[in-house]
Amino acid sequence: MFTERYRRHEYLVRCTVLRTCPASEAMMSLRSSDIAEAAPTSRERLHDLRGLLAVITSGSHMLGDSIAPDQRARIVEAIQDAAIRGSGIASELLATSFKPAPEERCELGTRIAKLRPLLQTLAGKRAMLRIDASVPPTFIRCRPARFDHILLELVSNARVATMEAGTITLRARRIGMRVWIFVADTGRGIAREELRRLLGSLHELPVGPHGGGVRQLRCFAREADARLRISSRPGSGTVVALALPVLPPDPAAPNS
Q: What is the phi/psi pair of residue 66, to 5°?
């Protein structure tokens, strides 16, 4: 397993895309070839289910407040969506033989747009969630359910780390033949040594608030042939970046 600091030009690209240049005490990166093989396990699918339950819990708390009817409708929709997705995961786990869902050709902007109500509900009242996925039609290959759960996991982790009145930013930008997905928060950040352990051996991840989520993230990065970068500084927040390969246009679908 190898870890490395950002190369200077990659760091400048990330700062330009995010329009911020955090003074990061800890910057680590992993390429897909550096990530040990590990298929999604039942334990990891249970981790996905826990994230959806967090959406339902957060949304339920928000329904207890005095909110506008349209916002209430969006929260109810998000709770229903989370319940349906959770039911699907439960069905997978109960099946006598589990086979991973096939990969599909997915349009990134459409995928994120469908997740917006869930993501906003998951962020809850603790943090302001900003979503900017204004990229030209961009197609990636992934297992849609896994992609959705990874974004939910990233926002969930950011929400836990973010203090009251903090900000979580989800941004997508296409650079060359990769599309970068950034999730940045203004939370408490991760210490250098903890971050080093999180990006060390996959089989020796520490038990704690970050270990399970990072395992899932790294497994997904390997599955999607993605590059994974995490930068953080205690007291200043964390930035997680995934660079997914962009698929070439599909000749059979002129609008792709």
A: -85, 105
Q: How confident is the model at residue 192 (pLDDT cuts 50, 70, 90)?
A: confident
Name 165's Cβ contacts closer than 8 Å, sequence gap at least 6.
127, 128
Mean pLDDT across 97-112: 82
Could you tell me the two tokens for 46? 């249970």
Pair of tokens at residue 148: 């959705």
In angstroms, the CA 33 to CA 31 distance is 5
The pTM assigned to this predicted structure is 0.65
Q: How many residues does the chain have?
A: 256
Beta strands in 70-165 (DSSP E): 104-107, 127-132, 139-142
Q: Tell me: the pLDDT tens digits for 84-93?
A: 788 777 766 6
Task: State which H helix or E strand residue 172 sits in.
Answer: strand 166-175
User: Half-sphere exposure of residue 152, counting CA atoms within 13 Å on the CB side?
Assistant: 30
> What is the gyration radius of the CA atoms in the chain, in angstroms?
18
User: 69 or 1: whose pLDDT is higher?
Assistant: 69
Domains of the chain (ranges; CATH) run 8-245 (3.30.565.10)
Q: Is 142 helix (H, G, I), strand (E, B) or coil?
A: strand
Is pLDDT larger for residue 137 or for residue 100?
137
Per-residue burial over 99-117, b if 16 or more Cβ lie within 10 Å, else e, is eeeeeeebbbbebbeebeb
Check pLDDT > 90 for residue 198: no
Beta carbons within 8 Å of 110's beta carbon, 6+ residues apart: none
- Among 170, 168, 87, 82, CA closest to 125: 168
